[in-house]
Amino acid sequence: MPKPHELVAERTRRLVEEHPPGETPVRDFLAARFDAGLAWVRFPEGLGGLGLPHGLQPVSDAIVEAAGGPDPFALNPMGYGMAGPTLVAHGSPELRRRLLRPLYVCDDIWCQLFSEPGAGSDLAGLATRATRGADGAWTVDGRKVWTSKAHEARWALLLARTDPDVPKHAGLTYFVLDMRDPGVEVRPLRQMTGDADFNEVRLDGARIPDDHRLGPAGAGWRVAMTTLANERSAIGGGSTVRGAGPIAPALELWRDRPDLRTPVRRDRLVSLFARADALRLTGIRYAAAPSDYPNSPEGTLGKLVDAELNQDVLEFCVEMLGAEATAFPSYEPGGDPAADAARRADVRWRFLRSRANTIEGGTAEVLRNVLGERALGLPGDVRVDKDRPWRDVPRG
Amino acid sequence: MSDDIDGGPFVLDGERRALRALVRDHAAREWDEAALRAAIGPGARLDRDRWRRLGSELGVLGPDVPATWGGGGGGLPDTVLAAEELGAALAPVPYAGTVLAAWTLLASGDEEALAEHLPALCAGTSVYAVACTDARGAWMPPRPSVRAEGGAVTGTAAHVVGAPDADHLIVLAATGDGPSLFVADVGAPGLAVTPITSLDLTRPQATVVFDGTPARPVGTPGRAVCALSAAADRAVVAVAAEALGASARLLADTVRYAGTRMQFGRAIGSHQAVKHRCADVLTAVEQTRSVVYHAAWTADFGGDDPALTASLARTAAAATLTAAADAAVQIHGGMGFTWEHTAHLYFKRAHFDAVLWGGLASHRERIAALVLDVLEPAPA
């Protein structure tokens, strides 16, 4: 019997040998990887996994990355990072069988209908209502916001209020929503960068069959915790390669623009590099071994550090560019994908985009609360809405 | 051992976990707060019994030293685990200086000197310190202020850490062949060790004046810098591990206090201003742990540049301990500023560490040289 990590490495090497990423269509490569159980090695066999420890995923990822294989997180972030793990943890066998493979091969893009205009970091305060009809199916009404990929998504993870008469966490239910339902309307939302990556989603009598519910009615918060934990570790995972990930733009600028180098900037870049390498090694460490803390802070911690580092790196780049940074590539995204990719690769665009990093997926302030309370066990904040029925809690 | 390598730096096997528990128990038993206070009082000296137990019972004083010279094997990863636990307790013992001495001797390759000195070093029966500063305390000066001639050394080395308790000094001295290593015995004629009040009371230091002191050459003449640098690259990871352990302990103490200290009708740790500061220290500790373990592992098993990883570990750990100590003093309020509380001892350790053995600037400079200065612009 080969050791598990050898098994993963050997299977992955065989995969990239039989399906060379350079010559294989992305979809075919992903399908082969799913069928080989290397999509998420911790998932059960037949569902894209091998039933092995999560810590072995980087073994496979590193081989695929080195061979130039596609990154499923970049292609379908909410699908790969959040929906997949949530479906495996809480979905019925039928849902998992039907939805996981098309998710992984990117036939189905996913989005996440969590945040609302009145409930961002206080996610459990959300107001979108789902009510069950006589036939058992659910009808959903409400308004979601900050929804990445909603305009491309086939499926959505939806958290909705099903009982307003109990405290906020107790009255939520978790669903998988078909974005093609006629009750779903997607409206793009323009951001600081000029782009419309996010959307507003109006739900007006959208219908969901009961077998698309994940977990019991009223227990949606527990299911959402699975999604959020996976969201944070997916966002904060970083790169396993030194110099890649958040630090890359600063190192590239330093390399390509010797005319902008100064001793002060050199020292600042050393600090940023050291932080980036610590983040990178922490990602590897957390993947390899559980942390020493009883309530694993892994994903939260990585997400927080990644977001703040990314902002600091891009601020450094902008400062280094000086007057050149005061021109912006364009606030009007064009229809040409190549031109738009170049625009989004520009450090000035990335500088503006990075402001969202400490807001999306949990604000930096909320993440510090999570670390303080769950990882360190410090007493909770004062919560005035804790025991009150949701309908009596002031909102706005 | 092969399971270790499979697991990489971040998976501790049973033996390593056992070693860590052993040192943790030793530190908790031998270096509780009362013992720590007694050990840093005026005129206090190294507790030789406790030190010997680290050598004979725990076997952590001679990492990498072959069994023929009294070593128990174990490399930098084992050293790091021991250092972490001793650092957490702020054990007032010359652990980092001792592993530096052991590695300097080993790097000299002088088998006669190894046979003479290593068994006592490993057993903890003799204490060694490394005197490789100049008269102003500069670390590994290109022109040493100690000179060797005819089997004797003359000159001054200042800020020699561990010298007040040392039995033997490994001395860096200028010779006709270039900087070379010698061993001088404390108590030899013409050797004066004058202790100075150390900022970090747990790391005693002294000014050492040599005046025709008999000293035995060690290793190849002129190769001292090479041996010392190799040893220091490993020893600074041990210093980083001590700081990591100290940071984690401070965080735990501070969190416990913040969770029970009531002000304005609430535990102070329920206020975000305090809670977020603790979260930031947690983040720093976790990041530093990754860097330190990685440095220790790759130094022994390869896979990365040991110079770069040592400097990254050293700078990360020093910054984290400073932040953890700042937070501890601040969050403990007025109590944190008193002599009675231990926070000041950790605070002083943090700032002592920042200049220990060449200081952080040299490591930041080396990171810049290894990472940034080698980046060449792509040809146009």
Describe the structure.
The complex is a heterodimer of chains A (396) and B (380). Chain A is α+β, with helices and mostly antiparallel strands. Chain A is built from 13 helices and eight strands. In chain A, a hairpin with a 5-residue loop joins strand 2 and strand 3 (138-144). In chain A, helix 1 (4-18) runs parallel beside helix 3, helix 10 crosses helix 12 (347-353) and helix 10 (298-321) runs antiparallel to helix 13 (364-375). Chain B is of the alpha+beta class. Chain B has twelve helices and ten strands. In chain B, helix 9 (272-301) packs antiparallel against helix 10. The longest helix of chain B has 37 residues, at 224-260. Chain B is globular and about 75 Å long. Classes of the chains: A alpha+beta (396), B alpha+beta (380). At the A-B interface, helix 8, helix 9, helix 10 and helix 13 of A face helix 8, strand 10, helix 9, helix 10 and helix 12 of B.
Describe this structure in a few short sentences.
The complex is a heterodimer of chains A (396) and B (380). Chain A is an alpha+beta fold and 396 residues long.
Indicate the proportion of strand residues of chain B.
Answer: 5-15%
The poorly predicted ranges of chain B are 1-6
What structural class do the secondary elements of chain A suggest? alpha+beta
Total E-strand runs of chain B? 10
Most extensive interface between two protein chains, with residue counts: A-B, 46 and 44 residues
What is the distance, rounded to the nearest whole angstrom, between the alpha carbons of the first and last residues of chain B? 50 Å
- Poorly predicted parts of chain A: none
Shape of chain B: globular
Largest sheet of chain B: 4 strands, mixed
Radius of gyration of chain B: 21 Å
- Helix count of chain B? 12
- Please give the share of residues in helix of chain A: 40-55%
The portion of residues forming beta strands of chain A comes to 5-15%
Q: What is the H/E order of chain A? A: HHHHHHEEEEEEEEHHHHHHH
Could you tell me the number of beta strands of chain A? 8
Broad shape of chain A: globular
The whole-number mean of residue pLDDT values of chain B reads 94
The residue fraction in helices of chain B comes out at: 40-55%
- Measured between the Cα atoms of the first and last residue of chain A, the distance is 60 Å
